[in-house]
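#onboarding

Welcome to the new folks! Below is a worked example of what a typical request in this channel looks like: someone posts a single protein sequence, and someone else replies with the predicted structure as tokens. Don't worry about understanding the tokens yet, we'll cover that in week two.

Example request:
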Amino acid sequence: MGTVHFEPAYLVRGNSGPFSLGGDSGSLVTTLDQNGERHAIGLVFAGTVPDVSYILPLRPILERFGVSLRAPAGTVTIARHPTPRGDEIVVFLAPGTRLPLERMPSVFRGVPVRYETRRSAKALG
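Example response:
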């Protein structure tokens, strides 16, 4: 086996706990700009205990494969969002998506859930 070197890579630490957990590799990382628009910036590819995650920038990956991001109607993105009162789950729905509340996964029981309709994520450079 050889060594694989990724450059550049982002090192991220969570504010109130780990940014990512085991099994999160490949997860899309997004950010909100000052206008509240969501932008895709990277992919989780590794993490260490207790609180360091490594993120690969997304644009070079998209360019290499000749693809772009577009969220079709029906797309649902679920994110954990820390608040001063504890974590909440935010469910981002692509425009035109309908999600009945009774279909909420049982894993969310006891955790506040907020639903938002957002435009598709855009990849930042």
